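Illustration 12: Ion channel.
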Amino acid sequence: MIFRLEPAWKWGAFLARLRSRLRRLHYGATPAAFRFQLAAIAVDLAIIAFFVATPVLQEWQSFLWLDYAIAILVAADMAARLLASTDAWRLIKRPAMWVDGFILLTLLFPAALANLAFLRILRLWSVSRSGALWRHLKRVEVWREPVQAFVNLVTFLFVATGFVYTFFFRNGSGFEDYVDAMYVTVATVTTTGFGDIVLPGVAGKLTAIVTMIVGISLFMRLAQALFRPTKVHFPCPRCGLIRHDPDAVHCKACGQILNIPNNE
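Figure caption equivalent — predicted structure in token form:
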């Protein structure tokens, strides 16, 4: 059998067509792009659900197969975003891309990085900052900041729960111990402190201190986002100020005339 290598220009043309198609699907407004973007969001939510359920699922014999299947999905998503981007280097420097890269490492090496697997839930944080997610929610754009503040809090609760489960419930496994870890985390964050379950030793006290400080800060951030005057996200074409009053005609920073779209 004789294998023939395709000329370089054919591979270059194929790559150019692929990038163009991915760009249309990721950033376009056609029905096909809309279906693709919704499917991508659904896959992201399924991946996050897998990460949340990992402490229970890891007892299954087929867990490694699921783990590597999710790794393929995450890798494919990262590659597609890089190909679709007009500035791949700028995309690589974004924190969300670093988070996804770390998550991919934990999926590819589940045994070596088992103690860091709880950080996979940070995927929820990166998804909440996805432009594709909010591109289809223009009618509720005013809720973007409260939703992101809520996601920050939920993400922290799951990360803290995963940390407590990994380092303080090491001898246990399964759903019951994970619920205990979540119970301790929520009781600590809310400063309820029932005292029926406590984290032992100096490490446990330090974990509780950090959890309370960060948790209270995120609660305050959520309350601030919910109750302060509503703003809309609309970048000023002159100075770049993003947050404006819904009925603003001029930018309060530079005076530029704005044309903020509304549904009225």
